[in-house]
Amino acid sequence: VSMILWGPPGVGKTTLARVIARETGSEFYSLSAVTAGVADVRRVLERARRNRQEGKRTILFIDEIHRFNKAQQDALLHAVEDGTVVLIGATTENPSFEIIGPLLSRCRVFTLRPLSREAVRKVLERALERDEWLRSQNPRFVQDALDLLIDLSGGDARVALNALELAVRLAPRGEGGVEVGPEQIREALQQPALLYDKQGDYHYDLASAFIKSIRGSDPDAAVYWMARMLEGGEDPKFIARRLVILASEDIGNADPQALILATSGFTAVDLVGMPEARIILAQVATYLASAPKSNASYVAISEATEDVRKKPLVNVPLHLRNAPTRLMKELGYAAGYKYPHDYEGGFVRENYRPPEDSEKVYYRPTEHGFEKNLRERLRRLWPERYRDKE
Question: What radius of gyration, in Å, describes the C-alpha atoms of the chain?
């Protein structure tokens, strides 16, 4: 069964793929989506076809498969569907957004979580016991340095192992071995001791502080909390997605440019990656924080959705229905519909909702920013709805 392994870095996606290949007796081919192209994929698929003729199973492992574009992912479809290869794709991104639907539907998605503190500790202890060079250094950890390494690795075994080796190399030699302290751990990781769990409560606490700072029009607080998230290892695309949502939910028509900037920012972040993505995110975040605010669109869709769920559903009035056939016209579909462009100013008084609910106001524009212009126009068009009390 082809599969997508979805999880953060260092949780063992590549190792798991190799174990599956070994345990199933399959030939294993590995590609990185960062460097491989369609030609590389086709070469592996050709080998897989020969293997199949000889009765051998082939596993194709593609690391960072989310970096493949649509054409590259399309090249895999037929071989996955007919069983020429078993695809194992590894990704740190949500497959629903990054993997094309036809390919995703042919794979099972397995979500891998960051390693627990206990698991990281076992990985490090095993390395200290089995690695010949580490044993030769006889490292001794002081001031809870090993616990610090476990905390700062963020559940990433690869980060933990690389930092362990570097910290031992940086540590001063004492009697009988090297002495590894917090200073060497932090230097090896090249970052301060940031408390940040990308999957836990602190992740959501920082994200909440970030969003509330923008909603509260404080650009300085916004960039501070954003810097905390980025330095803690947060995915910049997570932040970019939150900014797109906020642009509509908390700014909306008070500044329509906000959504355009936020969506452009998401595209740019995806294009350039870190570390430059932080500059793009800062531009978007400071603009959104400084922009006029309105949640009128959010309130409108929330109230309309509540009515749709709670109230009986009624038929679409005949004059609003489409009438593409003669029979529909004979049944009265579209009869009496007034085409606004035939009237002065492109507007004509008409009832566009069921008669039972024709007076309910969902969208109540504020007097903030550009939305004030919309409010004034709607007051002229629908004065009975948009009186001063609204």
Answer: 29
